[in-house]
Amino acid sequence: MFDFYVNTRIKFGCGARSFLNDILEKEQWDRVGVVLDHNLKDLSIIKDLLNSLKSTVKSWALGECTVSEPTYDALENLRKSFSDPALQVIVGLGGGSALDMAKAMAVLVKNREPAIAYRGFDKMTEPVLPIIALPTTAGTGSEITPNASFIDLKEKRKMGINGEAVRPRYALLDPEMTLSCPATPTVSAAADSLVHAVEAFVAKKTNRMARLFAQEGFRQVCTHLPRLLQNLGDISRREGVMYGAFLAGIALMHSGTGPAAAMSYPLGVHYGVPHGLGGAFFLPQVVENNIRQGYWEYANLNGPADASRPPDKEAGAQKFFENLADLLGQIGIPKNLGFYGFDGSKAQTDAFVKETLDLKGALEQNPVPFGEAEIRGVISKLSGT
């Protein structure tokens, strides 16, 4: 038995951005707030989109996302741009960080307590504005999920403003919007989608539909990403990666995340590592741990067995691990925590373990036990201690 839903209305394909004004007209939204990744403001494709938007609506407010890893402090600064209570909709333009901040602004227009008061699930007491998401990276899944993550700089924790109300009402997935994305954020976002697919496939809450989307999403990203990095202007590869990432996001939404994503949180909070890169960094170690404990379902992640694949599940799972590690190496994922400034000291390790264990919900989704001993083992191996 399973439940399956996609509550976001999705337009996918080159030119999908052109439906923005149609949506606003159909919904009769003419007072619009826009959260824009500040790195994009000088791009012709963004200028054209915003000029078209301004010609359609009665009024609009624009705020820029200027941080790569959003914080609650950054939300407080940004909300000053969205103080008009007459706003009817929030449009997010950018990568996962900009989209998460757009989700938060949809909350904070009418919910006037400090942003951190809404940390958790469904803490809003006033209506939340509808959200339209236009991602300019492919992989975070923020455009279809009911979550938005932010760092609490005081407590050094990353926790979200979550709930069905922050799931975007519409998502316009336009591969042309990703053409300007440089190699590093392209890899980070796509790597995030690989983590989504793999952890969704094996999560305890997974189901047949989630696995179906995870399999195809993983295959699409693995097929197109390495070739895209050879030519970042290849729109067909951009489309393939975006499509695969979208499928992986749906898989994640219907199953759950796991230890690799959980361990990426303290890596992001303390060392500034983007979530996608952090999750991909830990993913092979999680997979290897699970295989060592007798979990071999990874053999099925790419679909039914064929003549080119090992004849038994254990060998197939091991082959999957080897292929995954090779792919992540190809796209430049580091193999040592020292690259990020982690020195392997007892203090750093203990803090890392504690903060990961706080995310027990994700750890409990792993198909085999994954607790303190496993986290310490991964850290030791990746830091050479």
Which secondary structure elements does this structure contain, and how are they paired or packed?
Layout: E1 9-12, H1 20-27, E2 31-37, H2 44-54, E3 59-65, H3 72-78, E4 89-94, H4 96-108, E5 120-121, E6 131-135, E7 149-152, E8 157-162, E9 170-173, H5 183-202, H6 208-230, H7 235-253, H8 259-271, H9 275-292, H10 313-330, H11 346-357, H12 360-363, H13 372-383
Parallel strand pairs: 1-9, 2-3, 2-4, 4-6, 5-8, 6-9
Antiparallel strand pairs: 7-8
Structural overview:
This protein is of the alpha/beta class. The chain has two domains: 170 residues, 3-Layer(aba) Sandwich (Rossmann fold); 201 residues, Up-down Bundle (Dehydroquinate synthase-like, alpha domain). The chain has 13 helices and nine strands. The longest helix is centred in the middle third of the chain and has 23 residues. The model has no long low-confidence stretch (mean pLDDT 94). The radius of gyration is 20 Å and the shape is globular.
Features:
single chain; 385 residues; alpha/beta; Rossmann fold; Dehydroquinate synthase-like, alpha domain; 2 domains; six-stranded parallel sheet; three-stranded mixed sheet; 13 helices; 9 strands; globular
